[in-house]
UniProtKB/TrEMBL annotation:
InterPro entries the UniProt entry points to: BPD_transp_1_N, MetI-like, MetI-like_sf
Organism placement in taxonomy: Bacteria, Pseudomonadati, Pseudomonadota, Alphaproteobacteria, Hyphomicrobiales
GO biological process: transmembrane transport
Name of the protein in question: ABC transporter permease
Transferase among keywords: no
Membrane topology: Multi-pass membrane protein
The family this protein is said to belong to: Belongs to the binding-protein-dependent transport system permease family.
Keywords: Cell membrane, Membrane, Transmembrane, Transmembrane helix, Transport
Length: 323
């Protein structure tokens, strides 16, 4: 068991090192990404550019630059932005991370509960009007772009109906820290949570419904029914557990990617300065230290999410334990 855990940690470390090296090499292969020229500014003389290149170590071999940058990012943690010289990478990512984590975690709770509810109810009422209605609603949720739905929600809650009894409690756009103002934190994020979760409720509900319908055709379900088990027990203990495998796989990947910065559109629409927005601004400016910091943060959550998915497999599917 200990060996398996150590092996998994080694794989995670290897993946993160590979990702960091790939991002580093892609950055220097991108046209116009010469950091010395960007630091020197427009119309700088060749002598000025060369002096900056030597001062920042850009004239050294790429492997040496990579090792120095990784040391400053993870060991000394004094790596600063190439664009904003006063901005240190680690504190900037640490400041943006709670915003993204709060947004994605709350939305994840909603889309897991909503996806399971939609999938189970639709499967139990297969080929009925309720089933068709839920699948239509799920398809509508999948089809609505997040930025469009977010703007509509802002129009309703911040402008058109803000003074009504329904949305007068909604605060202005932005983020309030959980530890300093828990109620304000909840109120500022409840609308973004529903906006981000709408897409995934539709996707997860449709996937779970299809898996449940397929599971009900299997022999082990017929055996459970033949034993006289109640429909609820057949659903929860047998059909749902096996059908959750693809559900859990999707959740692990989606949660890791969203926490890593893919919730950018939601952050922009609702004025949340999270990791996605930080990454986007760094990419616009070709700011390698900030890009590396946010990419390493994202890769950490992706590999951790995949490791946790493997653990959940063992818990919900006995066949995995036996293999």
């Amino acid at each position: 068991m200990i060996f398996a855990v150590l092996q998994r940690l080694g794989q995670m470390l290897f993946v993160m090192i590979g990702i960091s090296a790939l991002v580093f090499l892609i950055f220097f292969a991108t046209p116009g990404s010469d950091p010395a020229a960007r630091l020197a500014g427009r119309n700088a003389s060749p002598e000025t550019v060369e002096a900056i290149r030597k001062d920042f170590g850009f004239d050294r071999p790429l492997p040496v630059q990579y090792v120095i940058m990784m040391n400053r990012l993870f060991v000394t943690q004094d790596l600063t932005s190439f664009v904003n010289r006063g901005m240190r990478v680690v504190p900037a990512v640490a400041q943006a991370a709670p915003v993204t984590l709060s947004l994605v975690a709350g939305a994840a709770v909603l889309w897991v509960i909503g996806g399971i509810f939609v999938g189970v109810v639709a499967a139990l009422s297969r080929d009925t009007l309720l089933d068709r209605g839920l699948m239509v609603l799920a398809l509508i949720g999948v089809s609505m772009p997040v930025y469009w739905l977010g703007e509509v929600m802002n129009l309703m809650t911040q402008s058109r109906f803000h003074d009504t009894v329904f949305f007068s409690w909604v605060p202005s756009l932005g983020y309030k820290p959980l530890l300093t103002d828990p109620w304000g934190w909840f109120k500022t994020l409840i609308i973004p949570w529903f906006t981000l979760a709408a897409l995934y409720i539709g996707i997860y509900g449709r996937v779970l419904r299809a898996n449940l319908v397929e599971a009900y055709q299997e022999d082990f379900i017929r055996t459970a029914r033949a034993k006289g088990l109640s429909p609820t027990r057949v659903m929860v203990r047998h059909a749902l557990r096996t059908s959750l495998i693809p559900f859990v796989t999707m959740f692990g990947l989606d949660f890791g990617v969203l926490v890593g910065g893919s919730a950018l559109l939601t952050e922009v629409v609702f004025g949340l300065n999270g990791v996605g927005r930080l990454t986007y601004q760094a990419l616009l400016n070709l700011d390698l230290p900030m890009v590396l910091g946010t990419v390493m943060y994202a890769s950490f959550f992706v590999v951790v999410a995949n490791a946790l998915v493997d653990v959940v497999y063992v818990l919900i599917d006995p066949r995995v334990r036996e293999s």
